[in-house]
Every structure is written in structure tokens, then in C-alpha cells.
Amino acid sequence: LQAENTYRVAALGGQAPDLMRFSNDQLGSIAPIRDRGSPLLEDLRPWLSPVQREIWDPVALQSMRYEGNLLALPVSQDCVSLFYNKALFDEEDMEYPNDGWTTADMLEAAQQLTFGEQVGISIPTKDPYRWFALNSGHGGTLFTDSGVPNLDGEGSAQAMEFWLSLELEHGIVPTGTNIETMKNHFVEGRAAMIIDGPWQWPTYEKAKIDIGQALLPIVEETGLRMSPMVGFKGWSISKQSPNKAAAVALALYL
After folding, report:
1. What's the rounded Cα separation, in Å, for the pair 83 and 65?
2. What is the chain's Cα-based Rg?
3. Which CATH code fits 81-214?
4. Half-sphere exposure of 218 toward its Cβ, with a 13 Å CA cutoff?
């Protein structure tokens, strides 16, 4: 967010850098802004040949579009997964989470690892971003095929019931846990498992946590894996840049 705001101020002041990396959601907030009638970011479609466009996955390219304009070249993607503290599992002589785990396995392990000041799993239950993965595992979708919000559709109620039960019924997620609380629990070595993304990995390594990582579990009732939302990041070129050809060449290299 800080980088996004810094770019916005610089661009509106005529001091935008030639090249800037943005996430797909940041593009959505920057794209509508105009400086003397012109957008802040260059439409990159004319700069790419059909062969060059085939380098990228179509979904990745689509995530970089706004109203048809291609505003960035995809460079990376990320999503949440299951992080776990190996030391806490070792202390209880328990097997680590694996890619065949179900939500029942996760719940059972979390219950065994919750005692005293230690929590089996710490997740921000009011955070929709992480809940979306559980919703998909229950067969739910955010939108219908026609683009209508579908949060009251099939599977969503069951997903919400399980999500809230971790706190309200099973007591393995502390009441009031938010993203910062979750992070602190893990950094302090008090949480055996969390659901987080690679953007926090350096923080946990710096805290000298022996981290393990696994796919999100399969929902026991449906046989579907929890599937998180995927975010993309890409290189954008400033509309103001006097070095657009060089900036595009650098973005393609990177």
C-alpha cells in the first residue's frame, strides 16, 4: 500500500519511475486515476507480439488487465497455504501436516496441540480472504457464471459454520484473533499452525521458527481441496516514461 501511494503521488507530480511492480488488486485502484486526462500506466498490448503474449498463462495476463488494457506483465503469483511450527509437532511426537490431510485431520491435530498458552491453529476468523479457500472446498463460489455475488450459494453456509466452529465450538482459535494476532502467535512460538502467505515468510524465518509448509487440507465432507485465491504481481510502465521501449525490454527480461 505504501508503494502504491508513493507511486500515485510521484505520478501525479510528473515524477513517476519508468518501471514499477504492482499486484493485480493495486492495478484496480491505480488504473482509473487520470493525470490531465491521461492514465498513469501504459497499455502494454501494442508492445507485445502474439508470440510474446503466449509466454504467460492466460489467467495471469487477464489478472493484469483493466477495461481491456494490459497494465502489467506478470512476474509472480502467490496464495495462502498451511504453515506449521515443526518444533511444536516434534514435542508432541506428532506427524507433520501433509498434502493428503483433510479438515478433520487438521482439526484433530489442532485440538491435540491446544493447551495452556499454546494454540493448535491461529487464523483470523473475520478475514474473508482466508475463508474464501474454505468456501471453495465446500463447493461454494464467490460469483455465479453471470457475475452475480453468490455468497449465499451452495456450500457457503457450511464453510462459514466450520470456520466459526474453530473458535466458538472447539475453542482452538482464540477469540478475537486477527491477522496481526495470528502473526504474533506464530512469531512467539505459540501457534502450531496458521494459514498465511509467502509475503510473511521472511518475518517467520527472522524469528527463527522452524517452518513447514503444506497445501491447505481437503474438506472432509466434499472431498474438495481448500483452494485459495491467487494473486499476481507484474511490471507496469509509466505512461509518462520517456524510455518506454527500454522499460518494456527490462520488464520482459525480469
Report:
1. 31
2. 21
3. 3.40.190.10
4. 10
Q: How confident is the model at residue 105 (pLDDT cuts 50, 70, 90)?
A: very high
Topology of 2-78+231-253 in CATH? D-Maltodextrin-Binding Protein; domain 2 (3.40.190)
Amino acid present at 35:
D
Q: Say how far apart CA 149 and CA 11 lie, in whole Å.
A: 34
Residue type, 85: N
Q: Where are the alpha helices (DSSP H) in 113-243?
A: 128-137, 156-168, 179-187, 201-206
Domains 2-78+231-253 and 81-214 equal at CATH topology level: yes
* Spatial contact of 218 and 101, defined as CB atoms under 8 Å apart: yes
Strand pairing category for 19-23 and 231-237:
antiparallel
Which set of grid coordinates corresponds to residue 31?
488504473
Could you tell me what percent of the chain has a pLDDT over 70? 100
pLDDT(159) > 90: yes
SS3 assignment, position 243 = coil
Give the dihedral of Cα atoms 47, 52, 58, 61; nearest 10 deg.
-30
- Residue 5 has a pLDDT of 85
Q: C-alpha cell of 204?
A: 517467520
72-239-75 Cα angle (round to 5): 15
pTM of the model: 0.84
Write the pLDDT tens digit of every residue in 170-191.
999 999 999 999 999 999 999 9
Torsion angle in degrees (nearest 10) through CA of 35, 66, 26, 176: 130
The ranges assigned to domains in the chain are 2-78+231-253, 81-214
Amino acid 1: pLDDT: 57
pLDDT greater at residue 53 or residue 43 = 43
Give strand pairing partners of 146: none
